[in-house]
Each structure stands twice: as structure tokens, then as C-alpha cells.
Write a structure and sequence with these properties.
The complex is a heterodimer. By secondary structure, chain A is mostly helical. In chain A, about 85% of the residues lie in helices and about 0% in strands. In chain B, the strands form three sheets. Chain B has a six-stranded mixed sheet with strand order 6-7-8-3-9-10, sandwiched between helices. In chain B, strand 4 and strand 5 (about 65) form a beta hairpin. Classes of the chains: A mainly alpha, B alpha/beta. At the A-B interface, helix 1 and helix 5 of A face helix 2 and helix 3 of B.
């Protein structure tokens, strides 16, 4: 029943993205801005001629930012909207566990975000066809985008579990994600020993750099999985507390 | 079926419920009556396993809601005040989702679906998105999701909330049709809805149960005396006083009132309605006294005690008894 319940909730939530205008709006905005940034900065760089690998890195850099924004936009509704409309009571009074509910919701958002991410693949493929890059670089870059997206989705889901207001959830998710993005420049400012601590926690700079360059480090994969797990776990605890509050 | 012992619920330092204790037998239809904010929804959500009590024991079908919430939820169907429908789903898709999430197999959902849609009379809207439905239909879909998994206990929180008079009648009829197969708990602040649907009433005030019993029992307990309405046709311009005296001489009658100073009732000439208060049911004695003194008795009824009076008497007077 456990995986059944997760699967049932996954299907409902995924269909909700497909049926609602919100899913298409997020997808359209991400594709549009990714395309503009790809054209403006990656293809027409002011720094003169770029190697194909550098163009791909530029694209992945912009795509990571858009993926994070899209992840926040897709995740803030997941629990807050149900709390607002009262449908969470159906789940709360059904024989399903909180982790089953949240895992189903998380996976549906991740699947939809992955679809959007895959839809940007034509840009790296253009580089592949017209330039000289390794397919592995593309695959590692997209693995990075998926892992980064998963971590930010988990943050958004946690924020969504805290409140019934999607705007509040968006603000909380943006503050947490923004803070984790800013840990890298902060690490450079404060220097050791605290600098190393902030650098280890940053969601973008240190852990993202490898994916952007096409280098796969196990520690980076573990970091994003750990971040996703931590915020999913926190969201489950929030749900449990609110269910019985 | 339901057994509560000293159940309380606090939100911070504020007591929302309790301590309450009561039992409900299998197959009963029980109404929770109370003004808004007295703890009805809190109590029902605790029973539906959607809220944890601060103290006390809640058993549903012998299962503790704290120890076996999962098992309890399988046995309970719950309709909150606002039906929990996903507006982007069609009625059939939504009910299938509700059935599956409550542990039914796809085959069981497919078998049960026509019966539930028939019973809640939503067949004609089954392919429509729930967001396009009227409030009445949405409420019926809410009932359908609550019964799809054939729960033993059905909990309906304000099931006629926001419905028009016709929809209210339809909802009452639907609830009555469910009484043969479920133990039903209904909450409402609308008195006729409760009195016409339930076998037994629990009246809540300030988080506590201040009375329980049938409407009749509650009326008996609250109003010690009994009231009769006696319609008498007077012969010509016969004195009202004679008829009044005939009633007053009956042993046990405590007061006899006429509607106005002339004793004449507007409408039909020569007809007077007396309001008689007595210590017991004196219909036969009053009728005999009037006939023996040569008066024609046109009608004789026990005056409607009315749940409104019971309710106002209880929650207004702050009286507590069981």
C-alpha cells in the first residue's frame, strides 16, 4: 500500500501540473528565458570567440538559476494550496502516511521539472551538432540540473508544508534557497575557518561547479541528495506536527 | 461503535473541547448540535483521526485513534464542512482517487463507482470537473467520497452548509437513505436538519455536552409541564369564560390562555384556541370536560415544543444535565 499511495498521489499531482495553466506558464517562462540567455550570453559573448565547452558551461550556468526558480514556483503550491482549499483533509483522514503524501508530491514535481529541463536539451544539442563537446558533459550537466532541482523542490515543499499561503511559502523558499546560493560568496568574504563551512553548504558554487564543467564528483551528488532528504524529512515532520496540532 | 472518555482538545492554552465522554451504538444516527465555535468540528475531526486529542481516550470500533489511526481511518468516512474536492478533476476521477487513497483496489473502485454515484445522485455530472459543479452537487460529491470505501462510521460536518432549501431537502433524504448501512454522526447549528435526521442528539455548548437524548426526551426534561392547543367551537355567542372554566377545572391543568381579550379567534367565527399548560398529558381529560359541558372540540394537539426552545433553553440558560 505504501508505494501504491505514493504512486496514486504522484499521478494526481502530475496530472494537476499538466491540467493547470500554472504548469505551462512555468515551462514557457523557463524555456523563453533560457533561450534568450543562451542566445545573448552563450552564443554572442562579449568575451569574443568561445570554445564549445565554454558555451555549454555558460548555458548550464544560466539553466541552473532558472531551474532553481522553476523548482520554487512548482513546489510552493504542493501543500499550501491543499491546506487553503481544504483538500488536505481528505488526505489527512485517509489511511496514508505523511511521508507517502509528500514523497508522491515531491516526485511529481520532480518529474514535471525534469520534463521542462529535458525540453531545453535542444540548446546543448545545437552546440553538439555545430561544435565539439562531449556527450558526457551534457549528461553530467543535466544530472546536475536534476539534482539541484530536486534539492530546491524539497526546500519549496518544506516551505509549502509550513503555511496555507502560497505567497508566504514562496517567500520562505526564496529566502532559504537564496541564502544557500549566497553561502559561496559569503565563504569567500569571511575566509577560513567559517568560510569552509559555508562553502561546504552552498547549494550552487562549490557543489555545482563540477556539473557545469562536466566533472562528476560523488561528494556533489551526495550533497544534493542529502539536501533533498533533509528538507523532505523536515517537511514530513512539519506535516506530522500540523496534523496533530 | 464510538466510545469517548474524558476527551479534551486545547489550542495553546485555549480549551476548544471537553472534557467530553459519550458512547454511540452501531447503526445509530446521532446529531451534534451547537452554535458556531462550540467545538463540533474539533470533535468530529478527532473522531475522523484528523486531529489529536489533548487528553482522553477515543475508540472507534474498539480501535484507539492514537494507537491505530491508520486502521481507524479505513473505517471512517468524513465529509468536512467544505467538501474536499479537487476542482481540476472530473467527478469520476476524483472519486476513483478518493477510493484508491482509502485503500481500495482499482477493481473494487470500478465495482463500487456506479452504486455510489447512483446513491448520491451525481450520475448526470460524473464527467464534469468538480470545479464546474453547483454547491449542491459538490456537497453530494463530498458525501460520495466519504462513502466510497464503505466505512462503518460516517461523519458529516454541516452537510447542508451553503445549500438552498431544495438542496437541503435532497441532502436530508440522501442522509436518511444512508442510515440503514452506516453509523452516522452529523453536526449542525440548523435545528430542523438535526431533528429530522437523527435518532439521538448531543447538544454542545462551550466545548461540553450539555444534554443528550431524543428531541422528545430533551423537551420533556427541559420543560416540566406539557402544553396543549385546544380549538373549540362556541355555540353562537356563548361565553368564552364557560369553556375556559371547563378546561381549568380539570385536575392537573395549571393555566389556560386565550389568544386575545375577546376570546375570539380571527378567521373562523365562533372558534377559539386555548393554550393549556398541564402537569402531564391531559388531552383526554380536557376533551371530556369540554364535551360534557356542551362545547364542540374541533382540534386538540400537543403544542410543538420545538427543538429551538430546547436548544435556546440549554445553551442560553447554561444548564447542564444528561
Amino acid at each position: 500500500m505504501a508505494l501504491d499511495a505514493t504512486g496514486i498521489i504522484f499521478r494526481r499531482e502530475f496530472n494537476a501540473y499538466v491540467r493547470s495553466p500554472m504548469g505551462y506558464i512555468v515551462a514557457a517562462v523557463v524555456l523563453l528565458i533560457d533561450g534568450i540567455l543562451f542566445y545573448a550570453y552563450a552564443l554572442n559573448s562579449r568575451e569574443g570567440e568561445l570554445l564549445s565547452g565554454q558555451v555549454l558551461e555558460g548555458f548550464l550556468y544560466f539553466a541552473s538559476g532558472m531551474t532553481a526558480i522553476a523548482a520554487v514556483a512548482l513546489s510552493i503550491r504542493l501543500v499550501a494550496e491543499e491546506r487553503q482549499t481544504g483538500t488536505l483533509l481528505l488526505l489527512d483522514t485517509s489511511p496514508v502516511r505523511d511521508w507517502e503524501i509528500l514523497l508522491g508530491k515531491f516526485l511529481s514535481a520532480l518529474a514535471f521539472l525534469s520534463l521542462i529541463t529535458v525540453a531545453t536539451l535542444y540548446m546543448p544539442l545545437l552546440i553538439l551538432v555545430n561544435g565539439k563537446i562531449a556527450v558526457g558533459h551534457i549528461l553530467i550537466g543535466y544530472l546536475g540540473l536534476t539534482l539541484l532541482g530536486a534539492a530546491v523542490l524539497a526546500i519549496g515543499l518544506f516551505a509549502s508544508a509550513l503555511t496555507r499561503h502560497q505567497l508566504v511559502a514562496a517567500a520562505v523558499a526564496a529566502v532559504i534557497t537564496g541564502a544557500l546560493f549566497l553561502f559561496m560568496p559569503l565563504a569567500e568574504i569571511v575566509g577560513p575557518p567559517f568560510g569552509r563551512f559555508f562553502a561546504a553548504l552552498t547549494i550552487h558554487g562549490r557543489h555545482w561547479a563540477g556539473f557545469q564543467s562536466g566533472i562528476l564528483h560523488l561528494r556533489d551528488v551526495v550533497y544534493y541528495l542529502a539536501m533533498s532528504y533533509f528538507f523532505l524529512f523536515a517537511a514530513i515532520k512539519v506535516m506530522e506536527a500540523k496534523r496533530w496540532e | 461503535m464510538v466510545h469517548l472518555t474524558d476527551v479534551t482538545k486545547y489550542y495553546g492554552n485555549k480549551r476548544a473541547l471537553g472534557p467530553v465522554s459519550f458512547e454511540i451504538e452501531k447503526g445509530n444516527t446521532v446529531g451534534f448540535l451547537g452554535l458556531n465555535g462550540v467545538g463540533k468540528t474539533t470533535l468530529l475531526r478527532i473522531l475522523a483521526c484528523g486531529l489529536r486529542p489533548s487528553s482522553g481516550t477515543v475508540l472507534v470500533d474498539g480501535l484507539d485513534v492514537l494507537r491505530d489511526p491508520h486502521e481507524v481511518r479505513k473505517r471512517v468516512g468524513y465529509l468536512p464542512e467544505l467538501p474536499p474536492v479537487y476542482r481540476d478533476m472530473t467527478v469520476t476521477d476524483y472519486l476513483a482517487f478518493a477510493g484508491r487513497i482509502k485503500g481500495m483496489t482499482p477493481e473494487a473502485v470500478a465495482r463500487r463507482m456506479p452504486e455510489v454515484q447512483e446513491r448520491t445522485r451525481i450520475v448526470e455530472v460524473r464527467d464534469m470537473p468538480t470545479g464546474h459543479l453547483s454547491q449542491g452537487y459538490r456537497q453530494r460529491v463530498g458525501v460520495a467520497q466519504a462513502i466510497i470505501h464503505e466505512p462503518e462510521l460516517l461523519i458529516l460536518d454541516e452537510p447542508t452548509h451553503d445549500l438552498d432549501p431544495v438542496q437541503i431537502m435532497e441532502m436530508r433524504a440522501m442522509i436518511r437513505s444512508l442510515t440503514d448501512s452506516h453509523t452516522i454522526l452529523i453536526s449542525s447549528h440548523i435545528l430542523p436538519e438535526i431533528s429530522r435526521t437523527c435518532d439521538r442528539l448531543l447538544i454542545l455548548n462551550d466545548g461540553e455536552i450539555v444534554a443528550s437524548g431524543t428531541e422528545e426526551e430533551l423537551g420533556e426534561k427541559l420543560f416540566a409541564s406539557r402544553r396543549l392547543s385546544v380549538t373549540v367551537r362556541l355555540d353562537g355567542d356563548g361565553p368564552v369564560e364557560a369553556a375556559q372554566a371547563a378546561i381549568a377545572q380539570v385536575a392537573g391543568v395549571t393555566s389556560v390562555q386565550t389568544p386575545d381579550s375577546t376570546g375570539r379567534q380571527a378567521g373562523e367565527a365562533g372558534v377559539v384556541i386555548f393554550q393549556v399548560e398541564g402537569e402531564s398529558d391531559l388531552r383526554a381529560e380536557v376533551c371530556r370536560a369540554l364535551v360534557e359541558t356542551g362545547h364542540d372540540v374541533v382540534a386538540l394537539n400537543r403544542a410543538e415544543r420545538g427543538l429551538e426552545r430546547v436548544f435556546v433553553g440549554l445553551v442560553g440558560g447554561g444548564e447542564t444535565w444528561h
